[in-house]
Structure formats: structure tokens, C-alpha cells
Design a protein that fits this description.
GO terms for molecular function: 5-oxoprolinase (ATP-hydrolyzing) activity. 39% of the residues lie in helices and 18% in strands. The chain has 241 residues and is an alpha/beta fold. The radius of gyration is 16 Å and the shape is globular.
């Protein structure tokens, strides 16, 4: 069975990013921002409450401390500092989950921290140290340091496929500062192939081997709700309850 995960709660104060209410019916897992790249206490509280109403599982979406750059600029932190920052963020979300009698479902790091941990085993290990405090599975990509470091963790490793990002020929993601709209029908077809065949196609047409325990859609993709609905409909027979 497969989940559809979405990065949510990425607003701040009166500033809004993404249609969380429109997206929540079409996903099974919410990755909730924890304050370092987006969100604040009120936004976290509202997002957790919204997920509870829709029966959506909630995981932490920690980031580098880069609110101005939306967590999409790389930074240099030592292992202890990085682990402490991720523990801090997960702990904040865990408090809101406790208020709703909900469990922390997983941890999925955001933006540049995701890319750095995919390349660098030391960064991946620092994140694992933080997730281990909470006994939480980590979400990442096969064929990277994610799988190398997190693959045999007792808490678990969840491999994901991206429905609204392109892949390079080496299997790495093309992450842009601002997401562009994707064709929902094409994205849904590709997501279904990733789930059922374990295959994807790079931007240049190269066949890639992937694993899709979970399929990601981003809330800041311009047509995110339409895309999430199409992916949900395509994967419905395979979705986790």
C-alpha cells in the first residue's frame, strides 16, 4: 500500500502559502512545517487540527533555519547543531500532536536539507540522530545517502517518489526555488507507474529505477489541488487506509 504525502502548514502569520484545506481530502499524510522555513505556532495548531478532521496522518517537516529563503538555500552546520535544530522542530510539532491525541507518523526534512542529506551521509546521520529521539520513520529517496544511512533503521525508512518534480538522468531531483505547474494527467500516470512498476523517466527520457512507498505532491505547486486529486484517483486502489 502507498501513501500520498504533501508539505503543509507552510504559511506564516497573515501570509499564506498553499491551499491546505483544498489539498487535505486528496492526501493521506501531511508533512507539517515546524517553524524554521515556514509556519508558526498558530499555523501548526490549525494544520494539525485540519489533518485530524480529515483523518490524515501527520509527520514533521523540519528545515534549515532559513525562513527568508524558504529553506531552499544550503547552509553549513556541524552535526551536533543540525541534530539539535531538528529535534527542536520535531518537538514543537509533537506538542501540537499530543494536544490532539495524535501520534508522530514520520519525519521528512525540507528543501535544501533534503538534498544535502541525500548526498552527504554525515548530514543524513545527523537527521537520523534527531528522528531516533522520537522513534520516527524517515522519508527519503532510494539510491541516495537516505537509503544508505536510513535504510536499516529500526524505526523505518519510507521511500518516496515526486509527482511534481523532474528527475535528472542520475536519479536526483531538480529542485527549483519556485515550483512550476505540472500536467495532472501526466503526473498521475507517472505516479502510478512508479508505484506499480518501480520505474520513472528522467527529463531526458532515461529510464530510472525508483521505489514509491509514498508519493509526494507539493502544496506550493500552482495547480496543486488539481494534481493531488488526479494522483489520488489514479492510486486509489493502492492507497493506505
Amino acid at each position: 500500500m502507498v501513501d500520498i504525502n504533501c508539505d503543509m502548514g507552510e504559511s506564516y502569520s497573515i501570509y499564506h502559502c498553499g491551499d491546505d484545506e483544498g489539498l487535505m481530502p486528496w492526501v493521506t499524510v501531511a508533512n507539517v512545517a515546524c517553524g524554521f522555513h515556514a509556519s508558526d505556532p498558530r499555523v501548526m495548531a490549525r494544520t494539525v487540527a485540519l489533518a485530524e478532521r480529515h483523518g490524515v496522518k501527520v509527520g514533521a517537516h523540519p528545515s534549515l533555519p532559513d525562513r527568508e529563503g524558504f529553506g531552499r538555500r544550503e547552509m553549513t552546520l556541524d552535526r551536533e547543531e543540525l541534530t539539535a535544530g531538528v529535534v527542536y522542530q520535531i518537538g514543537a510539532l509533537a506538542g501540537f500532536l499530543r494536544a490532539h491525541d495524535m501520534e508522530l507518523n514520520h519525519v521528512k526534512v525540507h528543501g535544501s536539507l533534503y538534498g544535502m542529506s541525500a548526498r552527504d551521509p554525515e548530514v543524513a546521520a545527523a537527521i537520523a540522530d534527531a528522528a531516533d529521539v522520537f522513534g520516527a520513520p524517515l522519508v527519503g529517496m532510494v539510491g541516495t545517502a537516505h537509503e544508505q544511512v536510513w535504510g536499516d533503521r529500526p524505526a523505518g525508512f519510507v521511500a518516496e517518489y515526486y509527482a511534481d518534480l523532474d528527475y535528472r538522468d542520475d536519479g536526483s531531483l531538480i529542485i527549483t526555488r519556485e515550483h512550476e505547474a505540472f500536467d495532472p494527467v501526466r503526473s498521475a500516470e507517472r505516479a502510478l507507474r512508479a508505484v506499480t512498476e518501480g520505474k520513472a523517466t528522467s527529463e531526458n527520457g532515461k529510464e530510472l529505477t525508483v521505489r514509491a512507498d509514498s508519493v509526494c505532491v507539493h502544496s506550493d505547486t500552482p495547480n496543486a489541488v488539481e494534481l493531488a486529486r488526479a494522483v489520488h484517483d489514479a492510486l486509489k486502489p493502492h492507497l493506505s487506509s
